[in-house]
């Protein structure tokens, strides 16, 4: 059986090679370079008292939620810079937060192994569910709607939960390392996960099947995102590189790396056309990459500690970076 | 000992099943895939505020320059 596994792996590699008649950079050689991107800090959001681990934009392009190990979720109005709400967490060891597309709910989770969902619209913010079944830390959560949420965990699984019953509907099993991140496809039929086994996997949300596996990274994948067309994904890793994998070609088509960069990638977000990749690094910066040409076209410097999270709202009007220095910055 | 090898066998069977599934997918040529990605990017570039820049008058994070205070 081991022989069969090896033979299949060789077959997959050969099929990928056969499809590999060029790479993204060569295909984009005729494209005009992206303009040098110089973004300014428009807001510095001060309020957290400890490291910020995660942030997520609301679909209204104005509100956002951030999570810090000071034990709070803060809801910000990014336009005014004001705090709209504060949600005290039962466990301060938070690693992720999420805003539901409706704007009604937010979720958090971390070393408590649970995903807790809060209703922002009740007169006093209430915990509506504690999703408790993972046997490892909660690394990422994303709402599909007010009734379903996807989670990734240090227990190597991802799960789809029914928020009405509080139970797991589907468990996604295949990674052999802690799952660190997940991203929903634009059509919401699939999602991708990145893990400490240095693999990214594409899953069908409804049937639970792992459809494709992407290799190439040599260390933990900490960040993952879909390209806006839905046909490619971008990953960021502790190996200090980001990679774009095309789903239909089933392979890496370009890498974003620089010999001078020797810090891991913690987070990433794309501009609305997909042309710009904002990648947060352990070296306190967020580098901006031209996704087609693989060149660095800008940098966001201003944080005094690791950039732990980045996010671009749906309308693409700005990029937000969150850091271990306890501040969030909005740039455009 | 025998428990380990039984668990190992099940896990191996699952791996092989998954690999068979993944080996069977159809793959597009990278040249075609890259062309599609490039086309998407370029078609949507004009709608990308971070790429094109945001004029102050439209920037919710920056008030327009003229601000009369009496």
Mean pLDDT of chain B: 85
**Rg of chain B, nearest Å:** 27 Å
Q: Give the N-to-C terminal Cα separation of chain B.
A: 86 Å
- What's the number of helices of chain B? 3
Give a verbal description of the structure.
- The complex is a heterodimer of chains A (332) and B (70).
- With 332 residues, chain A is mostly beta strands.
- Chain A has helices at 2-19, 24-27; strands spanning 41-45, 52-57, 63-68, 72-77, 82-88, 94-99, 105-110, 114-119, 126-132, 138-143, 148-153, 157-162, 167-173, 179-184, 190-195, 200-204, 210-214, 221-226, 232-237, 242-246, 251-256, 265-270, 276-281, 286-290, 296-300, 307-311, 319-323, 328-331.
- In chain A, strands 1-28-27-26 form a four-stranded antiparallel beta sheet, with no helix packed on it. Chain A has a four-stranded antiparallel beta sheet with strand order 2-3-4-5, with no helix packed on it. A four-stranded antiparallel beta sheet of chain A has the order 6-7-8-9, with no helix packed on it.
- In chain A, a hairpin with a 5-residue loop joins β16 (200-204) and β17 (210-214).
- The N and C termini of chain A lie far apart (54 Å).
- The relative contact order of chain A is 0.14.
- Chain B is mainly α and 70 residues long.
- Helix content of chain B is 59%, strand content 0%.
Summarize the structure.
With 332 residues, chain A is mainly β. Chain A is built from two helices and 28 strands. Helices cover 7% and strands 48% of the residues of chain A.
Helices, strands, pairings?
The complex is a heterodimer of chains A (332) and B (70).
Chain A: H1 2-19, H2 24-27, E1 41-45, E2 52-57, E3 63-68, E4 72-77, E5 82-88, E6 94-99, E7 105-110, E8 114-119, E9 126-132, E10 138-143, E11 148-153, E12 157-162, E13 167-173, E14 179-184, E15 190-195, E16 200-204, E17 210-214, E18 221-226, E19 232-237, E20 242-246, E21 251-256, E22 265-270, E23 276-281, E24 286-290, E25 296-300, E26 307-311, E27 319-323, E28 328-331
Antiparallel strand pairs in A: 1-28, 2-3, 3-4, 4-5, 6-7, 7-8, 8-9, 10-11, 11-12, 12-13, 14-15, 15-16, 16-17, 18-19, 19-20, 20-21, 22-23, 23-24, 24-25, 26-27, 27-28
Chain B: H1 2-23, H2 30-44, H3 49-52
């Amino acid at each position: 059986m081991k022989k069969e596994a090896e033979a299949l792996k060789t077959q997959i590699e050969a099929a990928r090679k056969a499809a590999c008649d060029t790479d993204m950079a060569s295909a984009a050689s005729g494209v005009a370079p992206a303009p040098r991107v110089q973004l300014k800090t428009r807001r510095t959001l001060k309020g957290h008292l400890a490291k910020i681990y995660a942030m997520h934009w609301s679909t209204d392009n104005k509100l956002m939620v951030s999570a810090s190990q000071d034990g709070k979720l803060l809801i910000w109005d990014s336009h005014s810079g004001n705090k709209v709400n504060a949600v005290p967490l039962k466990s301060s060891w938070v690693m992720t937060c999420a805003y539901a597309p409706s704007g009604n709910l937010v979720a958090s989770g971390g070393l408590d192994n649970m995903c807790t969902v809060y209703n922002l619209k009740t007169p006093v913010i209430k915990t509506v569910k504690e999703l408790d079944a993972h046997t490892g830390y909660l690394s990422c959560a994303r709402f599909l709607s007010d009734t379903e949420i996807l989670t990734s965990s240090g227990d190597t699984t991802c799960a789809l939960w029914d928020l009405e019953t509080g139970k797991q509907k589907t468990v996604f099993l295949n990674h052999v390392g802690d799952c660190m991140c997940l991203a929903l496809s634009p059509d919401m039929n699939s999602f991708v996960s990145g893990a400490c086994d240095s693999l990214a996997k594409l899953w069908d949300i409804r049937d639970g099947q792992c459809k494709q596996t992407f290799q190439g990274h040599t260390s933990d994948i900490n960040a993952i995102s879909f390209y806006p067309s839905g046909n490619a994904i971008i990953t960021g890793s502790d190996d200090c590189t980001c990679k774009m994998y095309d789903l239909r070609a089933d392979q890496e088509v370009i890498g974003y790396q620089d010999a001078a960069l020797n810090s891991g990638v913690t987070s990433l977000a794309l501009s609305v056309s997909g042309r710009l990749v904002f990648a947060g690094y352990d070296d306190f910066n967020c580098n901006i990459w031209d996704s087609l040409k693989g060149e660095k076209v800008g940098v966001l410097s201003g944080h005094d500690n690791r950039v732990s999270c980045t996010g671009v709202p749906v309308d693409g009007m700005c990029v937000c970076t969150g850091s271990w220095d306890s501040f969030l910055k909005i740039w455009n | 000992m025998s428990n380990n090898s039984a668990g190992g066998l099940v896990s191996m069977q699952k791996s092989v099943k998954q690999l068979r599934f993944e080996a069977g997918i159809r793959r597009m040529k990278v040249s075609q895939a890259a062309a599609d990605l490039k086309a998407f990017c370029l078609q949507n570039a004009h709608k990308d505020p971070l790429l094109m820049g945001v004029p102050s008058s439209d920037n919710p994070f920056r008030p327009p320059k003229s601000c009369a205070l009496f």
